[in-house]
Every structure is written in C-alpha cells, then in structure tokens.
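Checklist before submission:
- one chain only
- standard amino acids only
- sequence pasted in full

Submission:
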Amino acid sequence: MFEQCVGLAWCSGCRIYSGAMVHVPRTRVLVDALGSLSEDEAVRLRRSEVKLVAHLDHQDRR
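Returned file contents:
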C-alpha cells in the first residue's frame, strides 16, 4: 500500500530544509525535480549539496 521515502521540505525565506521518513501511496507519481535537466547536469547537482539546494531554491522562485 505505501512506500517509505525521504521527504524534504525547503523554506526559501529562512533557507532551511528538513527531512523525515514519509509514507507515500504506491499509486502516487513522484515528480523528479531534476528530471528536466541533462544527465550530466543532474549528476553534477547530486554531487554537491550546496549546488543542489541553490538549484531547488531557484526553481521555487519561478
């Protein structure tokens, strides 16, 4: 029925994020925030927490 996933919440105002284990229904489709990027760019962001958070922060402001 459910899958365990790591859920992250990001606040652009205070620039703090938190994480927790969450239960997601198996039927729910999760959106990949890096899905529109090239493979090389996604790998580059995944290797650097600072770059990844900056990228996600920028997406939030669109």
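Reviewer check: Residues 2-60 form one domain.
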